[in-house]
Write a structure and sequence with these properties.
alpha/beta; Beta-Lactamase; about 750 residues; binds magnesium ion; single chain; Enzyme I, Chain A, domain 2; 9-stranded mixed beta sheet; Glucose Oxidase, domain 1; binds phosphoenolpyruvate; 27 helices
């Protein structure tokens, strides 16, 4: 039975590929296909609807419906039965279309006389391209075999679409991968870069989706699958030597999928129906991705992701088109990916000039790495991996969250002008690098930099920073698959201290939990992780790792002065407890005969509003305080810093927040506690200026921001800024920004 279906479908595919092999215009080819399918399935109607834009399907060719409706009839995704096939990414097979949910009558097509309807999605790698429909007057349900045969044909049409077969005069589609496209995404790391696309997962090009010899294709699939299984077994054997249970479980899941009979059987059936082995893998992958989009359970989604990953590996084995090796990275590569892990990004390192991701988030590990490496990063660039080809020209505008792929000349030249202007500005900043950030009225603001990698340290000299105001220690934990060892950490911290040549570095203890989950830590399902078991809360409840880190820090200092601060302190008790742990470690180190300086500063990050109202004793006990504005602002306004819908809703220069910062600065000043601000806002010149006007005398920011901030501070009189802010406050303004920006224009 399966053989009959297979041979019938193979016969149709053969006719299809023979037809398409003849030179012709795109529209003529589409017309031939509909004619051929209708004929072969004994149906009165066959129609192809293709996506015009992200939301609209257009009737592009038909056999049997009114020819005048071609390129006229359009449907929204989800509208009518055709729209429903596209929105649900699954076939509809009915004997009586009028009784089917969502049926919509389109008089211009003359389809009212057709009773049965079989529609299947045309999709490639989970990407919806259109819908293929057959209809008959006779009220009959198509058999499963017929439906399956049509899906196979749809797969070939999808591959042909990708190859640009339907492009041409009056055709349905414009040539793929040639137009200029601008992707509007989110800002994750500022900066601009021009370069050429480097796809993290290269797009597989399949020249011939229809296979002449199914047996040879089956053999190719078997060989590739055997290699894949061997690779997974190797990974598993390598990892079993003491790796974490979670990691092993993931690999076991890989092995289970690789050995899954269902997966293999489905692909073999596809090949018997006439598809090339690669297309059979892609067909299954499309189905997995469609399922992935529908599964709400995060665990199951992850597992489907594993299967997707395996399909990619299998495709690479079959086509021999693999990951470009790292040595192949072109000079001006812009990395384009669906998503990327921090370890993979570190491997590319500074060799890439920009990154554009389809997924990603502002606080993801990859973003942290991109920031640390100062590589412009645009996230949420929907569907860019489908559009971009290796080597395409691309402009990354990290300041606006835009990526211009294959840009028009006018866009490219405006972009280059912008970069040139930025370079002029850089020259200006270099000239004041060794000068202090002293305002016109003689107030000096200490400018420090934020860091998180050894690779950041050269910026200490290049940027003119006085020291490192925040060293995030998470990265060394996040990018490994096991807990780092104390000796290794001590070595790393020690080289960081060496590289700083005596400038002060404030090490922040591990800030994990929330979005930063360690690969080897059991994931806690928390309803609201940003307000959950994170940072110092986790450190105090499970003190093993914190103690190890404190020991590593003290060993690295080896008798030199050091500054250590605890993140996310919400109340005095937490600070007292953490500080005591550090004091205990100091005693222990000394008792073991290790040198520990008398000058170990112990500070706290003020990241929750509660800490601003802690008892005086807290401020007296803390050697210093650093305001973590990223977190403080999200809790002050109750607006998730990770959530694109709300994160820009409240201005940092909102009167309430700025007044709060002023109160913290005053309280610290009254109680003699040194205070600085180390959130991202410290690196924005207007914000930095307002913080200085509110009384802050130390700011810590990305190295690239030090020049612009210093340049502005050196041009202003703080008393004047205060007057402008106070006027705006008394006028009832929501934010002081308009007033300050207006005043700056008069300078
Ligand atoms: C902050 O919250 O402002 C901060 C500096 O810490 P992180 O961004 O690492 O949470
Ligand atoms: Mg924070």
């Amino acid at each position: 039975m399966a053989e009959t279906t297979g041979s019938r479908s193979r016969h149709l595919l053969k006719r299809l590929s023979d037809t398409l092999a003849v030179e012709g215009e795109g529209q003529a080819r589409l017309d031939k296909i509909t004619n051929l399918i209708a004929d072969s399935l004994g149906a009165e109607v066959c129609s192809i609807y293709l996506l015009r834009d992200a939301k609209t399907l257009e009737l592009c060719a038909t056999e049997g419906l009114n020819p005048d409706s071609v390129h006229q009839t359009r449907l929204r995704i989800g509208e009518g039965l055709v729209g429903r096939v596209a929105s649900e990414a699954s076939p509809i097979n009915t004997a009586d279309a009028t009784r089917e949910r969502g049926f919509r009558y389109m008089p211009e097509t003359g389809e009212e006389i057709f009773s049965s309807f079989l529609g299947v999605p045309i999709q490639r790698l989970g990407e919806m391209l259109g819908v293929l429909v057959v209809q008959t007057k006779e009220a009959r349900t198509h058999s499963d075999d017929e439906a399956y045969g049509l899906e196979v044909v749809a797969m070939v049409i999808a591959e042909m679409t990708e190859l640009g077969v339907f492009v041409g005069e009056g055709a349905a589609l414009s040539a793929p991968h040639q137009q200029a496209v601008t992707f509007s995404g989110g800002i994750a790391q500022e900066g601009s870069a021009e370069g050429h696309v480097l796809l993290h997962d290269p797009q597989i090009v399949i020249a011939n989706p229809v296979a002449e010899d199914p047996d040879a294709e089956l053999q190719r699939l078997t060989v590739a699958m055997d290699t894949l299984k061997g690779d997974v077994d190797d990974m598993l054997n390598m990892q079993l030597g003491g790796d974490s249970e979670e990691h092993r479980q993931v690999l076991e899941a890989y092995r289970m999928f690789a050995n899954s009979k269902g997966w293999m059987n489905r692909m073999q059936a596809d090949i018997r129906s006439g598809l090339a082995a690669e297309v059979a893998v892609e067909k299954e992958q499309s189905a997995t991705r469609a399922r992935m989009a529908r599964v709400p359970d995060p665990y199951l989604r992850e597992r489907l992701h594993d299967l997707d990953d395996l399909s990619n590996k299998l495709l690479r084995l079959l086509t021999g088109q693999g990951h470009g090796s790292n040595s192949d990275i072109p000079q001006d590569a812009i990395l384009v990916a669906r998503n990327i892990g921090p370890g993979e990004l570190l491997e590319y390192g500074k060799r890439i000039k920009g990154i554009v991701l389809e997924e990603g988030s502002v606080g993801s590990h990859a973003t942290i790495v991109a920031r640390a490496l100062a590589i412009p990063l645009v996230i949420h660039a929907a569907k860019i991996t489908r559009e971009a080809l290796n080597g395409d020209l691309i402009l990354v505008d990290g300041d606006q969250g835009l990526a211009h792929l294959r840009p028009e000349d006018s866009v490219a030249s405006a972009f280059r002008d912008k970069i040139a202007m930025q370079e002029v500005a850089q020259e200006k900043y270099r000239s004041i690098r060794d000068k202090p950030a002293t305002t016109e009225d003689g107030t000096t603001i200490a400018l420090h930099m934020n860091a998180g990698l050894m690779a950041d340290l050269p910026s200490l000299d290049n940027s003119g920073a006085e020291g490192v105001g925040l060293f995030r220690t998470e990265l060394q934990f996040l990018t490994r698959s096991t807990v780092p060892r104390r000796g290794n950490l001590a070595k790393l911290y020690s080289s960081i201290l060496e590289a700083a040549h005596g400038k002060r570095i404030v090490f922040r203890t591990l800030d994990i939990g929330s979005d930063k989950v360690l690969p080897y830590m059991k994931r806690e399902d928390e309803p609201n992780p940003a307000m959950g078991w994170r940072a110092i809360r986790l450190g105090l409840d499970k003190p093993g790792v914190m103690r190890m880190q404190l020991q590593a820090l003290l060993r690295a200092a080896d008798g030199r002065p050091m500054a250590i601060m605890f993140p996310f302190v919400a109340q005095f008790e937490e600070f007292k407890e953490a500080r005591q742990k550090l004091l205990d470690e100091i005693d222990r180190e000394r008792s073991l005969g290790h040198a520990v300086s008398d000058d170990i500063e112990i500070g706290a990050m003020l990241e929750t509003p509660s800490l601003a109202f802690a008892p005086d004793q807290f401020f007296e006990m803390a050697d210093f305080i650093s305001i973590g504005g990223n977190d403080l602002k999200q809790f002050f306004f109750a607006a998730d810093r990770e959530n694109e819908k709300v994160r820009r809703r409240y201005d940092t220069l909102n009167v309430s927040f700025l007044t709060f910062i002023e109160q913290i600065a005053k309280r610290c000043d009254d109680l003699g506690t040194p205070v600085s601000f180390c959130g991202e806002d410290a690196g924005r010149p207007v914000e930095a200026l307002c913080f200085a006007a509110m009384g802050l005398r130390a700011l810590s920011m990305r190295p690239a921001s030090i020049g612009p901030v210093k340049h502005l501070l050196r041009r202003v009189d703080l008393a004047e800024v205060q007057a402008v802010i106070n006027m705006a406050r008394t006028s009832g303004a929501q934010s002081v920004r308009p007033a300050v920006e207006h005043w700056l224009k008069t300078l």
